[in-house]
Write a structure and sequence with these properties.
Number of strands: 0
Structural class: mainly alpha
Largest sheet: none
Number of helices: 3
Distance between the termini: 44 Å
Strand content: under 5%
Length: about 80
């Protein structure tokens, strides 16, 4: 285990799936933790940390559909 580690290669599409799954898992664990599960609270915190790490490491999306549009209507469209 102390040998060389191969970097993990994940496509942007795979990363989207992982991120969505972690969001879903966060919601599930939040409900379970609210019911009184301390182990669930620990799992929830671990999932939140992992999700935050993924979001930090992810390159910024350059989606043209999210670019600001000229005119007063762009104010309402940016709320997505």
């Amino acid at each position: 285990m102390l040998g060389r580690q191969k970097p993990l290669e994940i496509s942007p599409e795979q990363l989207d799936v992982i991120e969505a799954a972690l969001h879903t898992q966060t919601k599930i664990l939040h409900v379970q933790a609210e019911a009184g599960g301390s182990a669930d609270r620990e799992k929830l915190n671990a999932v939140k940390r992992t999700l935050a790490h993924i979001v930090q490491q992810r390159p910024a999306k350059t989606d043209a559909s999210k670019a600001p549009r000229p005119g007063w209507f762009s104010f309402f469209c940016l709320a997505d």
